[in-house]
Design goal:
Residues 2-116 form the Response regulatory domain. Residues 143-372 form the Sigma-54 factor interaction domain. This protein folds into 4 domains: 2-129, Response regulator (Rossmann fold), CATH 3.40.50; 137-310, Rossmann fold (3-Layer(aba) Sandwich); 314-383, Helicase, Ruva Protein, domain 3; 393-448, Arc Repressor Mutant, subunit A, CATH 1.10.10. The longest helix has 32 residues, at 105-136. The protein is 49% helix and 13% strand. The chain is an alpha/beta fold. It contains 20 helices and 14 strands.
Length: 449
Amino acid sequence: MKIFLVDDDPFFAEMLKYYLQLNPDYDVHICSTAKECLSALYQTPDIICIDFGLPDLQGDELFNQIKNLYPDLPIIVISGQENIEVAVNFLKLGAKDYIVKNEHTKELLWNSIIRLKENISLKQEVKELKDELGTKYAFEKTIIGQSESIKNTFSKINKASQSNINVSITGETGTGKEVVAKAIHYNSPRKSKPFIAVNMAAIPKELVESEFFGHEKGSFTGAADRALGKFEQANGGTIFLDEIAELDLNIQSKLLRALQEREITRVGGNQKIKLDVRVITATHKDLAAEVKKGTFREDLYYRIIGLPIELPPLREREQDALILARHFIELFAKENKSKPLTLSNEAKKKLLSYGFPGNVRELKSVIDLACVMADNGEIMAEDITFYNLEKKSENFLNGQKTLKEYTTDIIFHFLKKNNNDVIKTAKILDIGKSTIYNLLNQTENKKTQ
């Protein structure tokens, strides 16, 4: 640590320097005038200790000039005046300590610098952690894959991170909605501010308002103390509202008001708290369909939709399952301090032949288990176990149906899976849109007969 001692008493300054440099980590530089101190600031000291009574400039004037140039630079004032008013004034201006010159000065200064050093180290650690988060959520490390669908998604995420627009993420369970939300936040200008994630499905309906906006002491039974809500905690940063479609209609109106007015009021309070929060929402449901059903407010829908990002399911991402599998194999090896395994050709075929209804999350579980089961440094097909939570295909084939009936079942299965999106279903099944529309018309006619 580089420490400046600014004092016109050479004997006193040398005594402090000798004492402080008993710690080999301290590099102490003496300045005998304010002018000398100001001209040496380019050396970027970590701490400055200034004497109140200097020959060329009063301590408070030097203090103000340093603060104007370097607002965050810690300053300790050392003075021959045991004046409470002067001490309080300096502390109000931002001095880290006010030490009176007497027989205890060197011990008081030593302890004061130790406290400041711990604070500086903590700030540096926080900065490094935030930088690490930014690196951790760099696009190329989180959005893994080479398929056209994921490249298109990557492009939208990149655009979202460069603006302050709200973002709505849709996709099946396990496609990585929160990972994408974090990638947007930690690559945006808000990356040094909080990222607060809230899962709507995990909060009881009667507690959502308090969870969102906080509450004052005594505002309801059990409110023993004031509590800050998630929006207040996220101020300046990003709030991620996962499973937004699960939000009760009554709370939807309060959320809409908070987003429109950019302010909140804690439950049981009157003080209005200004908000500067970016909102990222996520759901596995079709929000537009929820609006039509009347379960989601149309005005809130338009407020949060912002830049929509639809995450493709793994089964639509071509060879990405293999790229992700290799990534998870390397991750497993790193976490378990072992050598990465390889995938046999049969294992690759088995992975590519499976639909992964649980998407990327399911793939990771499958690969973790395969890494445990594998022998001789290679994952074989028999090491790969799928969970098959859906009905087994044998049950599907056991029925006595015609080819036309089986075809109808398959089309309706994929229509349901794709929220009745005819174009997407036609593309997945490689059939014409008219085939699906004709089937839907025939089904509707049978119902009306």
